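Troubleshooting: if your tokenizer reports a length mismatch, compare your output against this known-good record of 340 residues.
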Amino acid sequence: MKIGNFDLSRDGTYIIAEMSANHNGKLQNALDTIKAAKEIGADAIKLQTYTADTLTLDCRKDDFMIDGGTLWDGQSLYDLYKEAYTPWEWHKELFEYAREIDIDIFSSPFDKSAVDFLEQFNPSAYKIASFEITDYELIRYTASKGKPIIISTGIATIDEIQDAVDICRSEGNSGIVLLKCTSAYPAPLEEANLKMIPNLAQTFNVVSGFSDHTLGSTAPIVAVALGAKVIEKHFILDKSIGGADADFSLDKEEFAQMVKAVRDAEKLLGKIDYSMSDKKRESRRFSRSLYVAKDIQKGEVFTEENIRSVRPGYGKHPKYLNDILGRVATKEYNFGDRFE
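Known-good structure output:
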């Protein structure tokens, strides 16, 4: 499966820098964030395409006020989204700039009008956010565009995940990535449940990955070790910029460290390979083999005292020792000779 020019089966882990609200309402911040994401080795920058009116109602009834110990308690949903959204008139410049500097760019649409708007930019993929996984018509409409569809599973039941996958496939779209996600901001480590990453791939026969809201970069490294092919992490130029998502985003230095750690993890994982490489073959000289441990006269019996398995590895394989013991020497052997 490919996202843009990135082949998930060949090119390693696809690392997405999630800009979200981290432009803090300034176009130059957004452009600088894209540039920084490219510089630190992210494979893609991701936007969010909505307005307060496409997400919620401008209402102050209790249902529409945020509480429950979040970073945004006391705000209305409408006011939060009005503060955090990325102006639609920026998108053309952001897409053009990302492509100019050769970093992938796409977005999370939050309603059909956002999908229609984004189609003009021919994004390499679409992302369905955690809280939109229950919006089956949004998933259906997005999947119908035929581009890879990345879906966060943060608040979904197993039946809802299955429904989302079935909807995509019913639209002829099998380019599905399911991201394990904990929809808490920031997410406690004990709620990450990263063992679900390989299970998502196996259960739903899709590519799986991880959308991370924990602090730091330990979780993405573990996720890659468990088979995540996509990592999404909130990215901010500098936390001093502030904004709705700043507290659980990685800054440039932190994100760069995460990218390096993920790439190092990929190297460590390597591949399943039992072949005898030149390096392995060279190292075998330090393994054990059979050597003459005492001078042996012709006609003398081979014993554990005069034939031993020792280092280095130039002699006969130790697996033959029991076959040799008890036999009679047909020639003389000197101490330290390889037994061949």
